[in-house]
Amino acid sequence: MDLSERFEWEGRRIAWGRAGSGPAVVFCHGTPFSSALWKPFADALSRDFTVYLWDMPGYGQSSKHEGHPVDFGTQAEAFAALMAHWQLDRPHVIAHDFGGAVSLRAHLFGRLNYSSLMLVDVVAIPPSGSPFFQFVHDNPELLGQLPAYIHEAIVRSYISNASHQGLRDDTLDELAEPWTGEVGQPAFYRQIAEYDEQFLHENEKRLDNLTIPVRVVWGTQDSWIPPEIAHRLHALITESTLALVPDAGHLIHYDEPAALMDEIRAWLDIQRVN
Predict the structure, then answer these.
(1) Phi/psi-derived region of residue 90, left when phi > 0, alpha when psi is between -120 and 50, beta in every other case
(2) 66-109 pLDDT, tens per residue?
(3) Spatial distance between the Cα atoms of 244 and 228, rounded to a whole number of angstroms
(4) For residue 176, is it within any domain?
């Protein structure tokens, strides 16, 4: 499944793709990733669902213009505009990392309607951010001037650290590539610099307003966002259920893909019955 389509929004170019037929399922990625980590799952589901992938502005194949904000609020607005472009009402949404905060904000503040929401190792409530993330947040301009080979080594090491079992070289290449070169390198530090935890505090205050079915899925070995956050998030969302996946880190997609696919398929099947 390729992101062959483009949507123009407020000077940004959003890359997206669609495949299959049936009920709509929309995937949201996080940082420092792209829709690439959802592609195998979207491909598998396209037999029974219409699946949508997109790269947030500032990520993956979407535009990375300096001066275009990439914070949670902006991404939620972009998501709402894209949903309107797709003419979708009440799709199933599956989100990872800060795609969780974006999809939650679009629903809680932008009033986007979902049939269900699956939150996979998400950035959703405070606190968040690894020590490296916090260091970059405090020193974005300094790190943006690093020699390209040092920057690439840092990005590859950072992404690798999100996996508990380790990543294949080709997988790491695919995830790191958007953050290299004259456009990718400054974009990597810029999106971290614009991170604002206030959006998470605002989301947290409204979680008890959620009335849609929510499934929280978490890797037990997630060192970026520990399972304690999953338990807190589950407790804050009345209409939620929780699943912990053994031997999986933050990149559960690569650590335990079969277990994650089972979770997704079972969840969507339950929603179809209900």
Answers:
(1) left
(2) 899 999 999 999 999 999 999 999 999 999 999 999 999 999 99
(3) 11
(4) no
- In Å, what is the CA distance from 165 to each residue of 51, 55, 210? 28, 25, 34
The mean predicted confidence, pLDDT, of the chain is 95
Residue 105 lies inside a defined structural domain of this protein: yes
Please indicate, yes or no, if residue 192 is contained in any of the structural domains.
no
Tokens representing 72? Answer: 């949670």
**Rounded Cα distance, 34 and 202, in Å:** 25
- Give the pairing of strands 5-9 and 240-245: unpaired
Amino acid identity of residue 139, one-letter, is N
Task: Identify the domain containing residue 58 by its residue range.
Answer: 5-127+198-273
Half-sphere exposure of 57 (CA within 13 A, CB side): 25
Which residue is listed with tokens 């062959």? 4
Per the domain annotation, does 189 fall within a domain? no
Q: How far apart are CA 182 and CA 34, in angstroms?
A: 18
**pLDDT more than 70, % of the chain:** 100
- The reported pLDDT for the residue numbered 118 is 98
β-partners of residue 63 are: none
